[in-house]
Design goal:
This is CoA-binding domain-containing protein. InterPro entries: NAD(P)-bd_dom_sf. This protein has six helices and five strands. The chain is α/β, with parallel strands linked by helices. The protein has a five-stranded parallel β-sheet, sandwiched between helices. The model has no long low-confidence stretch (mean pLDDT 89).
C-alpha cells in the first residue's frame, strides 16, 4: 500500500531547492533525473551549477512538487512563493524544518517533513535501501 510519501514521487515535475548543505539533495536530483522526471534545480549556494535556476521567478508555473533541503534560509518563505506559482506538494528534508514550517497550516498544500527523500528514492541495495528496511521494520516508514 502506498503512503503519501511514496505517492509524492509519482508526480512528473519537481523543483529541488538546495544550498548544498544536505548531500542527499544531489542524490535526489540524480535519482529524479534517472527516473525521467522533469527537474528544476534552484541552488542557493555560492557555486550553483550551470543551468540551475537563479530565482523563484525562473521556476515554471504549476510545477507539481517541491523538495527543499536548505539550512541557510527558511524553507517556509519558499513554500509560500511556490504556492503562488501553483505548487501544492512540498517535501522538507529531515532536520531542515523551521518553526515557521512546523506552524504552517494551509489546507491547500501538503507538507511532508521529517524524512530524507532518499529513504524513498534510494535503490534497495544501498545505504538508503537499508535505512528504508529498518524504518519499515520499526514502523517509522
Amino acid at each position: 500500500m502506498n503512503n503519501d510519501r511514496e505517492i509524492f514521487w509519482e508526480k512528473q515535475s519537481f523543483v529541488v531547492i538546495t544550498d548544498n548543505t544536505k548531500p542527499a539533495m544531489k542524490y535526489t536530483i540524480d535519482e529524479l533525473n534517472n527516473r525521467g522526471k522533469e527537474v528544476y534545480v534552484f541552488d542557493l549556494s555560492a557555486n550553483p551549477d550551470k543551468g540551475d535556476i537563479k530565482s523563484i521567478d525562473d521556476i515554471p508555473d504549476n510545477v507539481e512538487n517541491a523538495v527543499l533541503g536548505i539550512t541557510t534560509s527558511d524553507p517556509a518563505d519558499f513554500v509560500q512563493a511556490l504556492k503562488k506559482k501553483g505548487c501544492s506538494n512540498f517535501w522538507i528534508h529531515w532536520r531542515t524544518e523551521t518553526p515557521e514550517i512546523e506552524e504552517m497550516r494551509d489546507p491547500g498544500i501538503q507538507i511532508i517533513k521529517g524524512k530524507c527523500p532518499m529513504m524513498y528514492l534510494g535503490k534497495d541495495f544501498s545505504i538508503h535501501g537499508l535505512h528504508r528496511s529498518i524504518a519499515k521494520f520499526t514502523g517509522k516508514y
